[in-house]
Design goal:
Blueprint (H helix, E strand, L loop, with lengths): L1 H41 L3 E5 L4 E4 L10 E5 L4 E9 L8 E6 L4 E5 L3 E3 L2 E5 L3 E4 L7 E6 L4 E6 L6 E6 L5 E5 L4 E2 L2 H14 L4 H13 L9 H14 L6 E3 L4 E5 L8 E6 L3 E7 L4 E3 L2 E3 L1 E6 L2 E6 L10
Antiparallel strand pairs: 1-4, 1-7, 2-3, 4-5, 5-6, 8-11, 8-14, 9-10, 11-12, 12-13, 15-18, 16-17, 18-21, 19-20, 21-22
């Protein structure tokens, strides 16, 4: 009888211990799930790509006193929409609630973003179409190093919808076009764009060399573009004033100084041309303002837009 009582007591203690252990495991599992959920929640929801530089993230929608400044969102930055949308009284544009990598959360104007999109960078020239149809080529191209937002289409297989910076280039590209969404590649493209926006050639070269000095970027499919830009800047200093070199991947040389004239031939990146003539006034093409140059390359003459040459912005 004594032995039976001891056995029953032992079993009771064992069951109580197992119950406590299960409870402890249950609490640990729940805690882990909550922690994971918080991480996922910070980067969940619909992705959107910022198409303007320094878009304002505010604590509340609109421009009221409660809409305090939180931070600036850079061009090409990815944000995560919560699904909340609001149009403040007296305003005609909708504001979207969003979270950023790193935890910042707030509201920003929806028209500054490409919603349900991912960011990408061109590593070669890409033809832009008005509609997902080959006969609607606009004559506009995305250039190597250019950053844009890309959206999949469930109804147009083989095609992708794109939006460029400030929505100046909008349309469709073929799915097999030369672009990448790799994080390292896009980062190189962002830094390349910032470098080429510097006002002086020495500043451009210094910024480009910083990219080349970063070991993380050496595997990027765009690192060759950076190297070409550095070589071009270094050789530009040696060119006489009546010559220029091509900075685009391929550049159309046309019969007249406009984008509707006949393409006579194409000039490759790095090719050097002799300037025959320059238009007297600056003109705007696809949001870029520059002169047109009539150049001679290997016995052929044609007009090229200065933005895609070493004479960018009339330098």
């Amino acid at each position: 009888m004594f032995s039976m009582n001891r056995l029953l007591t032992f079993l009771a203690i064992a069951m109580l211990w197992m119950s406590c252990e299960d409870s402890s495991n249950s609490e640990n599992t729940a805690s882990g799930a909550d922690s994971t959920a918080q991480v996922v929640d910070a980067q969940s929801g619909t992705m959107a790509v910022c198409l303007w530089n320094e878009a304002g993230l505010r604590a509340a929608p609109g421009k009221g006193t409660e809409a305090k400044w939180v931070t600036a969102i850079n061009f090409g930055e990815v944000v995560y929409l919560t699904g909340n949308e609001e149009t403040p009284e007296g305003e005609q544009r909708a504001y979207l609630e969003m979270s950023l990598k790193g935890g910042a959360k707030g509201w920003s104007s929806g028209n500054l973003f490409a919603v349900d999109a991912r960011r990408a960078a061109a590593y070669g020239t890409i033809d832009l179409y008005k509609r997902p149809e080959l006969t609607t080529f606009t004559g506009t191209q995305l250039e190597a190093g250019e950053i844009f937002a890309v959206k999949n289409s469930s109804t147009q297989p083989g095609w992708l919808e794109v939006m460029g910076r400030e929505k100046k280039k909008v349309g469709w590209i073929q799915e097999n076009s030369r672009f990448t969404s790799d994080e390292v590649d896009v980062s190189v493209a962002v830094l390349y764009t910032q470098a080429m926006a510097e006002k002086t050639n020495p500043a451009k070269e210094a910024a480009l060399l910083k990219i080349l000095d970063n070991s993380t970027f050496q595997s990027s499919s765009l690192i060759g573009l950076v190297e070409q830009a550095v070589e071009g800047l270094q050789s530009q200093a040696e060119l006489p004033a009546n010559q220029l070199y091509i900075t685009a991947d391929k550049l159309n040389a046309r019969s007249a100084p406009n984008t509707t004239s006949e393409v006579l031939f194409q000039v490759n990146n790095g090719a050097i041309g002799t300037i025959v003539e320059r238009t007297p006034e600056l003109e705007e093409v696809n949001g870029n303002t520059d002169y047109w140059y009539l150049i001679e390359v290997e016995g052929q003459e044609g007009w090229v837009f200065g933005h895609h040459t070493s004479k960018q912005r009339g330098q």
